[in-house]
Amino acid sequence: MSFMPAKPSPSTQVRPEPTEYAAYYEKYVSLIVGNDIVAILDGQRMLMTQLLAARSEREGNFRYAADKWTLKEVVGHVIDAERVFSYRALRFSRGDKTPLESFEQDEYVKNGGFNERTLADLADEFANVRSATLALFRAVHGDTWQQRGVASRNEVTVRALAYIIAGHELHHRRILEEKYLPAIPRA
């Protein structure tokens, strides 16, 4: 059984202002077209799982340059980052004012063991993590979207975190589509 609110909160229909997140995250927030962030996140779940379902294990181990992550590591990074950003949104939506530290993405990937897993397993994990993210944001209503906290030494709102999650996924999905997939040698 899945949780579905009767109507989206009016606050999900408003884009975050630049004052709601650090300037660094504009590259992600600006990628998102539209204002119903919950619907956007839900649509992305399908797009990413379809993209990954069409890939082979051989493709999952591909990296387009020696110093780049494998396709599996990119997916693992997206999963890890979504968990971190969602955790921040949970804390701030509950009124927790404890500042949260940043995370070192390269260490997370190095220690994630993503290349030892199947691409299908990572695709399932992405879908599950996104489902949890959706459940969290579907339960956020009213002024809670504007609640602020400090993460990585910068103030951020719950609403901005939803857009950052969506923009981060889209950023990496585009990298997969534009740099990885065209470069994979055909067998």
What this model shows, in words?
The chain has 187 residues and is mainly alpha-helical. It has one domain: dinb family like domain (Four Helix Bundle (Hemerythrin (Met), subunit A), Up-down Bundle), CATH 1.20.120.450. The protein has seven helices and two strands, in the order ααααααββα. The chain has a two-stranded antiparallel sheet. The protein is globular and about 55 Å long. It starts with 25 loop residues before the first helix and ends in a 7-residue tail after the last helix. The N terminus is likely disordered.
User: What structural class do helix, strand and pairing data support?
Assistant: mainly alpha
Q: In percent, how helical is the residue content? A: 40-55%
Task: Calculate Rg over CA atoms.
Answer: 17 Å
The order of strands across the largest sheet is 1-2
What top-tier CATH class fits best? Answer: Mainly Alpha
Main beta sheet: strand number and arrangement?
A: 2 strands, antiparallel
Strand tally, please?
2
Outline: globular
What is the CA–CA distance across the termini? 42 Å
User: Total domains, how many?
Assistant: 1
Mean pLDDT: 93
Low-pLDDT residue intervals, each spanning 5 or more residues: 3-8
What order do the SSEs take from the amino end to the carboxyl end, as H and E? Answer: HHHHHHEEH
CATH level 4 superfamily: dinb family like domain
Put simply, the count of helices is 7
- % residues in beta strands: under 5%
CATH architecture: Up-down Bundle
CATH-defined topology: Four Helix Bundle (Hemerythrin (Met), subunit A)
